[in-house]
């Protein structure tokens, strides 16, 4: 049984200890009621029926009815409380899972398919809830029923009871065989479900590319293949369950035959009353439904164990980027940014993306980063708000290693705009503010003005307009401008802008640059630049190549002195002028 794997979820049950107590009491009460029925039957047969006592018969029949009523009430109570407790546990567990996912570093998410995380958050947690809410109850019920019924049988006729035990022993063997077989099936099934979720998710997010490239049949084939694998695996699971069910179900019938035979002999010899025999048979009948349910519960427990392993794979991953024990808040930040002998490799990769990287951005200075594509500019930008941590060396803000600053404090000093402007399915306002404390609407307006994102006022509901998933209802340039407004909002002392104007037209770009220049005046800016026109914003430019700074100076100095720099920027000109107009 996968009960040990459930230990982790015990704390989740703690707040609902009252519900659990009511549940356990009603379960035991219900069981006691059920187990007393054969006793009453035995009493009726051997007492009132044998002696022709009508009054006694009516009275005991009434008692039987009372017991049945009580059992009914207790079963209803048990189901209700178990359901309520397990649903609350599911919600708590899911909330914690989400919080944990958020606390994990970016590199964790680089390496995990989102479908696998989705299926864990939805399907696996539900599987655990189903087992805790139903399977576990039935399992406990079965165990207690077995113990109670066996004790009653032993008390009634120990020889017959031993016969029953003899016939039940093979259950252990069959269950073990089933356990080994089903564990593999359950794991495979849940992993396949995760893959399938990924495929659906990729289709939904990449629908434009898929359609534009006419890849629908390919995607369909991929999906159908995965769906058919799920079907085959599910079938194997059903077969394993059916095999167990047929074998296990056969056993009570066998023991019933044997008991009838041996018990009959006992009755004839006067060692057992007829009522006793009927009661004994009733006990065996009490064992038939647990047998029926056993296969189902074993498979549920196996699924729950797998689900819990899959969850643990995520929950046991410790956040690598978190606050160090002695990290502190950086109260006032002048914005001096320094990269000191920084070396960086992506986790699980052996390639140095940055090595021996030294750079200082003085407070208020705007520094441009220029380099070939793939030279590590974006990677460098990620190091500032600690989306990744350096492999060697230090990144310092105001002379303090960023790892010694509380993450919350560090990130509150940095405005960030990524290459890919990601927007959430929420209102424009929520997308801009992102839950930060914003002093006034003026500030919001100013940020929108800086980013030339005035189009938001013309949206149907203004700032309250919801932008679709990833902001698809907006154009690329509009999304980029919103992302820029988000970065400059709140006037952070450090601005890290990764090619923030790549999707806007030349005219808008000029306007944004004009207002951005004003913002950047008192701000430390790290600006990844691809277009020469953006270089007007920078005070100095660093040329990155081979993972390090190969040249640094003003744009004009580098234009004059550095061949690679000239080549990179003139290539840009060719890209900007698709008709081959010669570079100026
Ligand atoms: N998550 C990742 N895991 C492993 N390697 C990565 C990851 N992200 C980027 N890389 C690698 O790191 C190198 C630098 O990438 P980076 O995105 O920093 O380049 P860049 O200078 O920003 O390029 P571009 O000008 O095209 O934006 C590339 O070789 C890339 O393949
Ligand atoms: Mg980049």
Identify the notable features of this structure and list them briefly:
ABC transporter transmembrane region fold, binds adenosine-5'-triphosphate, 18 helices, Rossmann fold, six-stranded mixed β-sheet, 2 domains, alpha/beta, binds magnesium ion, four-stranded antiparallel β-sheet, 12 strands, 584 residues
CATH superfamily of the largest domain: ABC transporter type 1, transmembrane domain
* Count of runs of 4 or more consecutive helical residues: 18
Mean pLDDT value: 86
Could you estimate the helical fraction of the residues in percent?
A: 55-70%
What does this structure look like?
This protein is of the alpha/beta class and about 575 residues long. The protein is built from 18 helices and twelve strands. It has helices at about 10-15, 15-50, 55-105, 105-110, 115-155, 160-170, 170-205, 205-210, 215-270, 275-315, 375-385, 405-410, 430-435, 440-450, 475-490, 505-520, 555-560, 565-575; strands spanning about 335-345, 350-360, 365-370, 390-395, 400, 415, 425, 465, 495-500, 525-530, 540-545, 550-555. Strand 4 and strand 5 form a beta hairpin. The longest helix has about 55 residues, at about 215-270. Mean pLDDT is about 85; it is low at about 575-584. The chain binds adenosine-5'-triphosphate and magnesium ion (MG). Magnesium ion binds near residues 377, 378, 419 and 498.
